[in-house]
Amino acid sequence: MLEQILETKRKEIETIILPPQNNVKRISLINALKHSKRKPALIAEVKKASPSKGVIRPNFEPIAIAKAYEEAGAAAISVLTDQRYFEGHRDYLIQVKQAVQVPILRKDFIIDRKQIEESVRIGADAVLLIGEALEVKKLYDLYEEAYEKGLECLVEVHERDTLERILTVFTPKLIGVNNRNLKTFQTSLDTTKEMARLLPKESLFVSESGISSYKEIQTVREYGADAILVGESLMKKENVLSAVRELFGEVNSFVDTP
Ligand SMILES: O=C(O)c1ccccc1NCC(=O)[C@H](O)[C@H](O)COP(=O)(O)O
């Protein structure tokens, strides 16, 4: 599946028309995660659909969702901008950035400098770089390019080998361990557990995907996660504000009937 997505991206890059520079105040994702009141800090995802689940949220209103996430105490918001597989759009990120004060992560398949420039112009604060999608040298070049342009990077890994390869070249400031197997789409928090002990102490650590309960939050916290990235389980709930509170064990999910 990843190869299929990347093939689509390679073709799309040719067609990207860079929008004019959007004058926005850049906010540090890393600082927001470090200083979050919620522990682990929450990166809440604006996600309409996915290759594994199809449409998750038919009634999709990115601005309203983002504002609710912010009100619920999310430290940052992740916006999927891939159109083909996630029904996202770069315009959603532009709109969300204007509507909230928390940092915005552009969640897409970044494989080229042109996408970094595009991310700057649409107002992203950080971009995702996926270890399995890039040669380490290329990943490092994009990482440097992003930082030079004022963006931070979440360097995501799914497999131990990928992490080990990256760490021979550099130490990312922010590392995401993705619990989703890219071949089967199954999620397992064991991935977080297994990778946690390999992570450099100086990197901030995000556990991504497949988190849907307070118990699971406690589990990844025990494994050492500083932050979590959650999409589907929040997007499936009509009221995302109370969905965040439920996820963090603050309100009961049961509604009493008379
Ligand atoms: O979500 C998918 O099905 C997917 C499939 C293939 C590549 C990436 C995919 N998701 C991107 C993400 O990493 C997630 O949207 C993010 O971590 C949130 O995960 P979840 O809470 O499970 O929606």
From TrEMBL:
PROSITE patterns: IGPS. InterPro entries: Aldolase_TIM, Indole-3-glycerol_P_synth, Indole-3-glycerol_P_synth_dom, Indole-3-GlycerolPSynthase_CS, RibuloseP-bd_barrel. It comes from the Bacteria. Pathway: Amino-acid biosynthesis; L-tryptophan biosynthesis; L-tryptophan from chorismate: step 4/5. It catalyses: 1-(2-carboxyphenylamino)-1-deoxy-D-ribulose 5-phosphate + H(+) = (1S,2R)-1-C-(indol-3-yl)glycerol 3-phosphate + CO2 + H2O. GO terms for molecular function: indole-3-glycerol-phosphate synthase activity; phosphoribosylanthranilate isomerase activity. It holds the Pfam family IGPS. Its EC number is 4.1.1.48. One of its GO terms (biological process) is L-tryptophan biosynthetic process. Gene3D superfamilies: Aldolase class I (3.20.20.70). SUPFAM superfamilies: Ribulose-phoshate binding barrel. It is an enzyme of class 4 (lyase). Residues 2-247 form the Indole-3-glycerol phosphate synthase domain. Belongs to the TrpC family. This is Indole-3-glycerol phosphate synthase. It comes from [Anoxybacillus] calidus. The gene is trpC.
